[in-house]
Amino acid sequence: MTTTAIRGKLVGYMKVADDKKLKAIYTLFEDEINTQANDWDENFVQQLEERSKAVKSGTLKTYTWEETKKAAIARAKSKKK
Questions:
Q1: Max alpha carbon distance in the chain (Å)?
Q2: What's the pTM value of the predicted model, to 2 decimals?
Q3: What torsion do the CA atoms of 67, 68, 70, 72 make, to the nearest 10 degrees?
Q4: What is the CA radius of gyration of the chain?
Q5: Chain centroid to CA 69: how far?
Q6: Exposed, middle or buried by CB within 10 Å (0-12, 13-18, 19+), for 17?
Q7: Half-sphere exposure of residue 51, counting CA atoms within 13 Å on the CB side?
Q8: Cβ neighbours of residue 17 under 8 Å, at least 6 residues apart?
């Protein structure tokens, strides 16, 4: 089973699981969840905020999905040669 499928099954289960089971699952992963929430230092958060503002103001170059996909395919093809 792919990780995408596993994520989907877990998300689906979490939506219908009773409170007791949700609390048990949370207890298993509580430390990891809390650690991940605090992994971003101030510098990283500031960079995210600056990039977000730049995207919203139109000063940061962004790419459509089609442009991104085309560039990725071109790069993969060039590495095969």
A1: 56
A2: 0.41
A3: 160
A4: 20
A5: 18
A6: middle
A7: 8
A8: 25
pLDDT digits (tens, 9 = 90+) for 32-77: 887 766 667 888 889 999 999 999 999 999 999 999 999 999 999 9
- Give the integer Cα–Cα distance in Å for 65 and 73: 12
Residue by residue, what is the 3-state secondary structure of 23-81?
HHHHHHHHHHHHHHHCCCCHHHHHHHHHHHHHHHHCCCCCCCHHHHHHHHHHHHHHHHC
CA–CA gap between residue 24 and residue 30 (Å, rounded)? 10
